[in-house]
Amino acid sequence: MRAVPEASEFRLVIPSQTRYLNLVTGLAKRAALVSGLDDPTAAKVSIAVDEAVTNVILHAYHGAEDKSVELEIRFTGQALEIHIWHTGHGIRQDQVHLPDPKEYVKHPRKGGLGLLLMSRFMDEVRFEDSEDRSECCMIKKLA
Amino acid sequence: MGDLSIVVREAGPVSVVEPKGFINAHTVRQFECALEEIVQAGRYAILLNCRQLSYISSAGLGAIMGLIETVRERGGDIQLCNLQENVYAIFDTLGFTQLYKVHPEEEAALQAFPAQPPVQS
Question: Element (H or E) spanning B47, and its range?
């Protein structure tokens, strides 16, 4: 029997269209389950991926449907890593400002919750913006 | 693609909205339209029965948030019931369980609304 490699990964490229959100979130949930996360945690991973890909489509690409979004899912043995790449308008880590939920409850408004969900449901969320493409990396540790 | 279907029914003064499937950036407009139609009809007591809602992203939360002020200004409310574990986790994580009344079952939720419909303007 062949030994299972310590780290493995696969990639998926989708058009920058919201109709594919259900596809990628379903995939993310299955990947989380395969990595050993329980069902409620896997559901949270899928929501984080929904929010990240939605941000790319609506904000980085401003709704343009002829671009692409690349996802890479890595199983490292210690964590599930999800990398999302795009060539739109990216954000840098220092531009990320999470709303305070307590303030949000006091002064409700529309929008601004996606990043908060990503940060609450994943152990690490990082953004990198380079000349040719931008990345959002989300990590969920196993146990 | 059939990601979301919505049934709206009347239970006395309360409009019960039952979304089935996924509310995300792709389906949120359909959800918004259903809520807006109810409000435009002058009905401000709205119960979201989430028993068949698989998940709701921040786009869907924004749709509820966008109407809550209008509804409450007219004496009504938006309340929720039958939230699945992962849907409750989303509401709770963002503090929405402090903003909206959440009930375990529809029957208890309907009793939480006033017996008389809110004043229409």
Answer: strand B45-49
